[in-house]
Design goal:
heterodimer; A: Cytochrome C Oxidase, Chain A; globular; B: mainly alpha
């Protein structure tokens, strides 16, 4: 038999797979029981049975501990946030001039625009929420772990390949270019029809990557539903379930109904692109079919992203207001209402497509109705703070920033629900400003509130307060400068998605870019603060670092933290250094 | 049934009745005014279906969740959010009764959380609290640490509250 290149490749692949199998078998050996402090240098303190965790990277590749997976989600989301943020900084640099003088090419701008949107929504937004929910939900509801720990791990590990596929067009691969379809992937452009370059394999890779992230989100959602339904401690009845868990439960329900639909639509689009089907061709289902399918997923996706951050704010804000959440059950029921109604509003994204105006009116009605539950929450947050003992800590500042930005983002959105207003403002920067007030001003702010609030819980250390405050103010000012300028641009008639514009828009665009620069500086401060404080921040000296007990606002996760501290100290014979949650023994030369 | 959906529960559920009302308003408007006219049967079914589906789904979910939450309130102990698994946490009604008793002027009210009843969260007097907060500041853990930090930025690590008011 002749030895061909094909055969050689097959043999090499076989050998490679054998090598992988041998490696994995060895990993299993490494999971043998390592006594604390005797070679298990990376033994974390993040949970019971931690002395059994393997060392180093192997711990992170093999972990099924919900807290470790939460940290992995957090690290992943941070990387994605940095990538998406740098992409948009390039775009904002480009938009300081009316021509394409900075990037030199409108197609590169289009690629950045597409990737920025998809990265921020699918690779940052959903995973950062999963970071909080994975770490906290089992602690708060008194569960041992997630219902399906291994599925939890698989769900996370689908994400990195998803990101690589989505970003593949930017890698130096021959003949692969980035997708330029915008995050909505409207057909016929995304179907590769016409004389453009979107038949390129880069678009297929992005669609496949997106599909992977969808599968990941669905697996995670099933896990959370099962966990919250079946793994709650006996005392945690439906009446005692905390607001964050309620929002995650609702979000998981939305994911369960929305993401499989996106997956199906993506497969149909891939078939149209590669196998000559006509789902979205004019002679087949028509391009508008894509918009219906996409937005039936896409609008619930908005609430998939915003409900858990609302849960974080509803959970954290009362702690620094010195009182319980006002109207707790109002918030719960309105969360559920948003969940249901979000499936009845999808075509408000399509008012300008020429769909039957009589049907359009029905979508307008439900879109106006869905504003009520969100407004109810806003009043609940404000009332919680009213006459409270406010403590303006960094998490609290981010919570208040959330409420403030959410009001602007929400009110600008209500106008868009009205058909006549939408027809004027559709596809302008007004829409971009509106939804960035929500995704950046609200969702990301709530994420930051959560990160700062639970930073002592996760790391056992304090962040640097001044830097955190600087971060908040830079972001609060930056967000409003950037996105309010966009709202004004929209009123002026500036269309979205363009790399170039008429000279009369230059000033407002430059102001928006200035605001984006403030956001960049704030972001750099945040990364520096978190990284440095994680390694060498002063240690938390009590199990109740936020002094919640003083106002009777302690919660289960801090109770767990306190118990963990007590056991850790006992295990190290009292008062000695304990290992940090990254796994490394850290010399503490500041606190003790 | 009637036991679960008592006055308090129905009051809680009003939050979802408002969007239901808005949808019903538009249903009535489209039927009575028929602003576009000339919809065939299929069009009418679509128009009303798009309103009816969210309406019915929301009504069902509101009923089911109300029954689950209010039912559990009747059947088992109720705590404030996040406190159910903390050992020794008082039940919600205990806290509320203590607040009411204190509001009624009773002096020997026992704090259900085991602390000083005067600190109860319902009795908020912002002016008086300012002083309390300043006093409390010395107890903050992070404060103790900040002195030992050798980085200028890290001097005030950790969160304290009162000076930021």
């Amino acid at each position: 038999m002749e030895i061909t290149g094909q055969l050689l490749l097959t043999v090499l692949m076989g050998a490679f797979l054998l090598g992988v199998a041998a490696f994995l078998a060895r990993v299993e050996d490494w999971r043998s029981y390592t006594p604390l402090g005797a070679g298990g240098g990376a033994v974390g303190e993040s949970g019971y049975g931690h002395s059994e965790k393997p060392a180093g990277l192997i711990r992170w590749f093999t972990t099924v501990d919900h807290k470790d997976i939460g940290l992995l989600y957090g690290a992943y989301a941070t990387v994605a946030f940095v990538v998406g943020g740098l992409m948009v900084m390039l775009m904002r640099a480009e938009l300081t001039t009316p021509e394409t003088a900075v990037l030199g090419s409108a197609t590169f701008y289009n690629s950045l625009l597409t990737s920025h949107g998809i990265t921020m929504l699918f690779l940052f937004g959903t995973p950062i929420i999963a970071a909080f929910s994975n770490y906290l939900i089992p602690l708060v509801i008194g569960a041992d772990d997630m219902a399906f720990p291994r599925i939890n791990a698989i769900a996370f590990w689908l994400l990195p390949p998803g990101a690589l596929l989505i970003w593949a067009g930017f890698f130096p691969l021959p003949d692969v270019i980035p997708a330029q379809t915008a995050w909505t992937m409207y057909t016929p452009l995304s179907a590769g029809v016409g004389n453009g370059n979107q038949m390129n394999v880069g678009v297929d890779l992005m669609l496949l990557g997106l599909h992977l992230t969808g599968v990941s989100a669905t697996m995670g959602a099933i896990n959370f539903i099962a966990t919250i339904f079946t793994e709650r401690a006996e005392e945690v009845t439906w009446a005692n379930l905390d607001i964050f868990s309620w929002t995650i439960l609702t979000q998981s329900g939305l994911i369960l109904f929305a993401f499989p639909l996106l997956g199906s639509a993506l497969v149909m689009l891939l078939l149209d692109r590669n196998f000559a089907t006509t789902f979205f061709a004019v002679e087949g289902g028509g391009p508008i079919l894509w918009q219906h399918l996409f937005w039936f997923f896409g609008h619930p996706e908005v609430y998939i992203l915003v409900l858990p951050p609302m849960g974080i704010v509803s959970y954290v804000l009362p702690r620094f207001s010195g009182r319980k959440l006002f109207g707790f059950k109002f918030v719960v029921y309105s969360t559920l209402a948003i969940g249901v109604l979000s499936f009845g509003v999808w075509a408000h994204h399509m008012f300008a497509t020429g769909i039957d105006p009589r049907l359009r009116a029905s979508f307008m009605a439900v879109s106006l109705a869905i504003a009520i539950p969100s407004a109810v929450k806003t009043f609940n947050w404000i009332t919680t703070m009213w006459n409270g003992k406010l403590r303006l800590t960094t998490p609290m500042l981010f919570c208040i920033g959330f409420v403030s930005n959410f009001i602007i983002g929400g009110v600008t959105g209500v106008f868009l629900a009205s058909i006549p207003v939408d027809l004027v403002l559709h596809d302008t920067y007004y829409v971009v400003g509106h939804f960035h007030y929500i995704v950046m001003g609200a969702i990301t702010f709530a994420g930051m509130a959560g990160i700062y609030y639970w930073f002592p819980l996760v790391t056992g250390r304090w962040y640097q307060r001044r830097l955190a405050k600087a971060h908040f103010w830079l972001w609060m000012i930056g967000t409003n400068v950037t996105f309010f300028a966009m709202v004004l641009l929209g009123y002026g008639g500036m269309p979205r998605r363009y790399a170039t514009y008429l000279p009369q828009f230059a000033t407002l665009h430059q102001i928006a870019s200035l605001g984006a620069f403030l956001l960049l500086v704030g972001g750099i401060i945040w990364i520096y603060n978190v990284a440095v404080s994680w390694i060498e921040g002063p240690r938390v000296q009590s199990g109740d670092p936020w002094r919640l007990d003083e106002t009777d606002l302690n919660t289960a996760e801090w109770d767990w933290f306190e118990a963990k501290r007590e056991t850790s100290l006992a295990a190290t014979d009292g008062g000695e250094d304990v290992t940090a949650d990254g796994g490394q023994e850290i010399e503490d030369d500041t606190a003790e | 049934m009637a036991e679960i959906f008592d006055r308090d529960t129905l009051l809680d559920l009003t939050v979802n009745v408002i969007p239901l009302g808005i949808i019903l308003f538009f249903v009535a408007a489209f039927v009575l005014i028929d602003p576009f006219g000339g919809l065939d049967f299929y069009g009418r079914v679509l128009q009303m279906g798009l309103l009816a589906f969210p309406l019915v789904a929301l009504a069902i979910l509101t009923y089911v969740s109300g029954k689950a939450i209010a039912g559990d309130e009747k059947r088992s102990k109720v705590f404030f959010q996040g406190q159910a698994t903390i050992e020794g946490s008082p039940e919600k009604h205990e806290v509320e009764e203590a607040i009411e008793a204190e509001a009624a002027g009773e002096t020997d009210v026992e704090d259900p959380y085991g602390g000083d009843a005067d600190e109860d969260e319902s009795e908020v007097d912002p002016d008086a609290d300012d002083n309390d907060d300043n006093d409390d500041e010395s107890d903050v853990d992070a404060d103790d640490e900040s002195d030992e930090s050798d980085e200028s930025d890290a001097d005030e690590d950790g969160e304290v509250d009162a000076d930021e008011k």
